[in-house]
Design goal:
The protein is an alpha/beta fold. It contains nine helices and 18 strands. The strands form three sheets. Strands 2, 3, 8, 9, 10, 11, 17 and 18 form an eight-stranded mixed sheet that branches. The protein has a five-stranded antiparallel sheet with strand order 1-16-12-15-14. Strands 4, 5, 6, 7 and 13 form a five-stranded mixed sheet that branches. Strand 10 and strand 11 form a beta hairpin. The two termini are about 25 Å apart. The structure holds flavin-adenine dinucleotide. The site of flavin-adenine dinucleotide has 40 residues, from helix 1, strand 4, strand 12, strand 16 and helix 8.
């Protein structure tokens, strides 16, 4: 299943080196299927627990949705806290938001331990109201976040106008978010685990998994593997032997502009997004490009028509240009990609209800990297038989 097409910016920022051919162990404590962000962060966490691990990837690690990711890391979710409270109750919703905040710290920890720079920088996020009608919703969100101790400010129109060249009715500003180079973060986490003994098998497709009472048999294009536990992190592609419920696939568009010499018009290199759905979102890169994304469409395969794609990128550019009318912007890189969401806007993470040694980490949603991080710790706890507050919130059958 093709997950993206076009020119990917992050691919130009990382030189792949590959992995030495590993001697296959008779049985692993854990086999991770999929070498994207979810597999990488799981590998990072489990390698710190001293497990023997193998990571199996059908193509090259980091080449799936992870290389299309725009790298905004935020504790806030596509579903606002006050809306999640309505959906699952206050205790669970706050617990989940706190876990996303904790995941931000854990992502920083991965970034600091990666064997090379992953361009992780702590940033504030500006979440603006796209219309006057959305101001009340944003105010409610501000109140909910404040009540539960999250670091947030409320900005009126004049505050936004004082700091940015555009005007919007209101915004909330959250602290403690971050931007990252997602491909470098993914590869950094994999190399961290690899240096601690993880075996990596690229260009090896998993064809099926068979859970028995004591171990799991993993059938691949390069023979069989055995493990005490299997963690499926195959992203938006269909997982082997498993249909994830509530999965909804869309097509989305992202681009990186040319480097911009003078960024003084962009307050504190903040990350920016909005209340409209689908939302426009943007951030800066280390080499001073604007990365922008949005315009999601309900389609479950990548568009074929070059004309359609060109029209969408034209629209993306004019929406960006409208915010920054004095800048002469052009896109150096443009890519379109599939994007998975769940109907309740939460990721799907946990043990398979019928296969006790098989676990899933499917980081659906716009906050996928944060979900992959909190999911890696949730699965660590499940593997060790420890309870985790997110278990019942994110379980596969909910
Ligand atoms: C345009 C775009 C922008 C995004 N922006 C953000 C953002 O700003 N912030 C954020 O947090 N998230 C963002 N996301 C979401 C983020 O990219 C995903 O959450 C993340 O990449 C998911 O990682 P993953 O490891 O689950 O999937 P993937 O990166 O797709 O990795 C899955 C891997 O599994 C492999 N695989 C699949 N099937 C098999 C098999 N049978 N055998 C072996 N290997 C297999 C695939 O080849 C692939 O490498 C964005 C996504 C897109 C598309």
């Amino acid at each position: 299943m093709k997950l993206h097409k076009g020119s990917l910016y992050w691919d130009t920022t990382f030189q792949r080196e590959g992995f030495a051919k590993a001697e296959r162990k008779e049985i692993y404590d854990a086999v991770i299927i999929g070498g994207g962000m979810s597999g990488a962060l799981t590998a990072y966490v489990l390698s710190n627990e001293g497990y023997s691990i193998a990571l199996i990837e059908q193509d090259e690690a980091g080449g799936g949705s992870t290389s299309a990711n725009t790298g905004l890391l935020q504790f806030s979710n596509d579903i606002m806290l006050h809306e999640l409270i309505k959906q699952i109750g206050e205790d669970k919703a706050v617990e989940f938001y706190l876990s996303c905040k904790e995941a931000m710290k854990n992502l920083q920890d991965v970034a600091e331990h990666a064997p090379f720079d992953v361009n992780f920088h702590t940033r504030e996020s500006l979440y603006y109201a796209s219309t006057e009608e959305d101001v009340a919703r944003l105010k409610k969100e501000y109140d909910a976040l404040r009540k539960h101790g999250f670091p947030v400010e409320f900005w009126k129109r004049e505050d936004i106008e004082a700091y940015f060249p555009f005007s919007q009715p209101a915004a909330i500003v959250t602290e403690g978010d971050a931007e990252v180079n997602p491909l470098r973060l993914c590869m950094g986490a994999i190399y961290y685990a690899y240096e601690r003994g993880m075996d990596v098998f690229e260009h090896t497709e998993v064809l099926g998994i068979q859970d028995t009472e004591e171990r799991v048999l993993i059938k691949t294009t390069d023979g069989d593997f055995q493990a005490r536990a299997v963690i499926v992190t195959t992203g938006y592609a269909p997982a082997p032997d498993m249909t994830i419920p509530q999965k909804d696939v869309k097509v989305t568009y992202a681009a990186a502009t040319q480097p911009i010499e003078d960024l003084s018009f962009w307050r504190d290199r903040m990350m920016i997004w909005e209340t409209k759905r689908p939302y426009l979102y943007m951030r800066l890169t280390d080499d001073n490009r604007i990365v922008v994304g949005g315009l999601d469409q309900n389609m479950d395969t990548l568009p074929d028509s070059e004309e359609h794609i060109a029209k969408k990128f034209g629209q993306l550019k004019s929406e960006l240009q409208e915010l920054f009318p004095e800048q002469k912007l052009h896109f150096d890189y443009e890519w379109t990609a599939l994007f998975g969401e769940s109907t309740d806007e939460l990721p799907v993470i946990g043990r398979h209800p019928l296969e006790p040694h098989v676990y899933y980490l499917i980081g659906l949603g716009g906050n996928g990297t944060v979900y992959s991080m909190l999911g890696a710790y949730l699965l660590r706890d499940e593997l060790a038989g420890k309870s985790n507050p997110n278990e019942s919130i994110l379980e596969i059958e909910r």
